[in-house]
Design goal:
The chain has 420 residues and is an alpha+beta fold. The protein is 52% helix and 7% strand. The protein has 19 helices and seven strands. The strands form two sheets. Strands 1-2-7-4-3 form a five-stranded mixed beta sheet. It has a two-stranded antiparallel ribbon with strand order 5-6. A hairpin with a 2-residue loop joins strand 1 (38-44) and strand 2.
Length: 420
């Protein structure tokens, strides 16, 4: 077998970091054009990282029987100031599996039925504030909906002063890292200096402390309601027990609530905004999805979630602009050969979701929004992976897609929108 050399990006490290931060899609498209589907980059902090996008390579790495890679929590250290050291994504090995097993049940099975009606009602309540003929930014609307869902369905906090205060705090806090430039305070530790309340990092950590205080107070109050029948995620996590009979500590609960907020708010909101854009940008797609929704005799959450074309619209939205461009980093536990390329043990590897989703051999005309490709073909989890893969796959993916479908269906069944 001929051993092929893996190329490294030729541009200086700091240029790679600037380009990948400010224009990530252009950067990735250029890398794929110049270096193919496997290359080394220094665009992620101080680590030299192997980026790959061939489904065969992803399958080889993620296949649990191969045991080629580990998913170390230490590789996600940049998220510690944002989420806290007890966040699921910062845990390793047995502790990670233990936490994951405890957090997963509320996002699957019967609980989904309880959440469905709430999601539709919340969407209706937010939409009622719109006036006929009014122009609005779709992402602002979808963020309002998903933030309300997080607070009510996940945190179990309903209307009132407490709800409004936490909502305003969280919205302001998240806005501090919502653009590529402002997010650099998380990407580059050298920028994390508290120079007072008006400095970027100073404002960031003060808001985070206020949120921490309110969440800890909510957890304490909820622990005292032992006999409560609440079905929100926080209540279920408080009641849940590890195999040894222990439950999550207050700090573990707080850090994982922040993780659920960050993983499920702006991500889902952005995808819904893009879906609304594509549906209204192509009249034939709008007519097909509207016809499918209107053909439902009973448009309840379960029936909506099973609609094939609506599902395909959501899948194609997640394909063309995946919210996460990469899976979480992996490290190779031993040397491995990927299609003739030798990869040494101890190499950091990041499968690129965006580049995999834009492969011409998998998705002809990849820049075209075409939901029918998901009607006509079943893609493997190594070809379509918007929620990552392996042990770090997003545990809220079922909830996220369910939420997307219900929000889109509620909007399209009740309102006529026009793309400006």
């Amino acid at each position: 077998m001929t051993v092929k050399r893996i190329e490294k990006l030729k541009t200086p490290k700091f240029i790679q970091q600037i380009e990948s931060t400010l224009k990530p899609l252009d950067f990735l498209d250029r890398c794929a054009k110049n270096y193919g589907d496997i290359f080394f980059t220094n665009s992620f902090g101080n680590l030299e990282t192997l980026v790959l996008s061939h489904p065969q390579d992803i399958q080889e790495l993620f296949n649990p029987t191969n045991k080629i890679v580990d998913a170390p929590g230490a590789a996600n250290e940049m998220f510690k100031p944002h989420l806290g050291e007890n966040s699921l994504i910062l845990q390793d090995g047995e502790r990670h599996q233990k936490h994951r097993k405890l957090i997963m049940p509320p996002f699957h099975g019967e609980q989904m039925l309880n959440y469905g009606q709430q999601i539709c009602e919340i969407t209706q309540q937010v939409l009622q504030h719109l006036k006929p003929g009014e122009t609005f930014i779709a992402r602002h609307l979808s963020e309002e909906i998903t933030m309300t869902i997080i607070l009510k369905v996940v945190f179990g906090i309903n209307e009132g002063l407490k709800f409004e205060k936490l909502k305003n705090l969280m919205t302001t806090w998240l806005s501090l890292t919502s653009s590529p430039i402002s997010a650099s305070i998380l990407l580059f530790p050298s920028l994390q200096k508290d120079l007072g309340a008006w400095s970027p990092w100073g404002r960031y950590i003060r808001l985070r402390r206020q949120i921490d205080e309110k969440l800890m107070a909510e957890i304490l109050e909820r622990r005292q309601q032992v006999q409560s029948n609440n079905n929100d995620v926080l209540s279920l996590l408080i009641k849940a027990k590890y195999e040894d009979g222990e439950s999550m500590s207050d700090v573990e609960l707080r850090d994982n609530l922040l993780t659920l907020l960050n993983a499920g708010h702006e991500t889902t909101a952005t995808t819904i905004a893009w879906a609304l854009y594509w549906i209204h940008q192509q009249p034939e797609i709008y007519h097909k999805v509207s016809h499918e929704l209107q053909s439902l005799k009973t448009p309840n959450p379960i029936n909506i979630a099973q609609l094939p074309y609506l599902t395909a619209v959501c899948q194609e939205t997640l394909r063309i602009y995946p919210v996460s461009l990469f899976t979480f980093p992996r490290i190779t536990l031993r040397a491995v050969n990927l299609r003739g390329y030798d990869v040494a043990s101890g190499t950091y590897v990041m499968p690129c979701i965006y580049l995999t989703h834009h492969r011409e051999d998998l998705y002809p005309q990849p820049d075209k929004f075409e939901p029918d490709r998901f009607i006509n073909r079943k893609y493997s989890s190594y070809e379509f992976c918007p929620f990552g893969g392996g042990s770090r796959q997003c545990l809220g993916q079922v909830f996220a897609v369910y939420e997307m479908k219900l929000i889109l269906a509620t909007i399209l069944l009740n309102y006529k929108l026009k793309l400006e």
